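Batch manifest, entry 17 of 40.
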Amino acid sequence: MVATNWSRRGAGRPAAAIGLLAWSVAVAGCGSGVAAQGSFERTYTVNGPIRLDLANASGSVRITGSTDNKVRVHGEIRARSFFFNDPDKSARELSANPPIEQRPDVIRIGKELSKFRGAAIDYTIEVPRNTEVTTTVASGAQTISDVQGPVKVETASGSVAVSKIDRSVQVSSASGSITVQDVGDDLRANSASGSISAANVKGDIRLHAASGSMNVTKPGARVEASTMSGSVDIEGAGNDVTASSVSGRVSVQGNPSGNSYWSLKTTSGSVDIGVPTSANFHLAAEAVSGDIRTGIPVVIEDQGKHSLRARVGTPGGRVEIHTVSGGIRVDPAS
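Output type: structure tokens
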């Protein structure tokens, strides 16, 4: 059963969440059903760091860190009848025996949830700050904050918001926006359809979207961002940047001085960069169909109709820009 699959996949493989979504959609298609409601509250005492593993077919999830050694789980249940199921019985059984399992260093939530067809659970969970979190949710918004981590999130449908995490974060979404901020380590985020926003991430950032825009502010290390359809905006870049869009604009604000290397590419869209007038770098720009304009002083080394090689200040970093259909702008940082 999908709900008992606790394997720890990478952020780029949302197979478990998609499997849960397929199960919940199949059930939902069998009729509107009669609704019943219930709730449960459980508190567990833990010692030392723990891992929270959660799987949910339908319903929102909110996980926050606390200052004590308690895990508090509150669930709001919405059950519907399908086939010969009794929604009141399902709600009563889930209220009396919620799908929670405690082990010495692991709290698992959602085990054997498929027994309760048509049930959706909204979770509000408090955990000690030194908790590692892994979630797999088919349909529902997720909010995770104020834990040490690492944090790994998979979702088939629903927004994801992650903040104030000390260690690494990995997020994979089939459909839904991803927002991450205040992370003390690396970030990996993948979205099939949905925007990705990252702010104040101290480690490396790697983002990929098939369809969706990306926004990165105050990156602390390298940035890799690619999307098939959508814009890429990066502000405050001071290290290596690799950014590309097949159909969409690429904009980078920052300082490529030192040993930084920026590689910026679009197939259909403009590329704009904003740098300090005191920046030092080599510039190599090519616009197959479009013009190249610079709003800062440059020393031209070679120039063609749609290409430019130049020095800005005393060269240190390198900036390479390529666009097939669209213009290139190099302006003072705003």
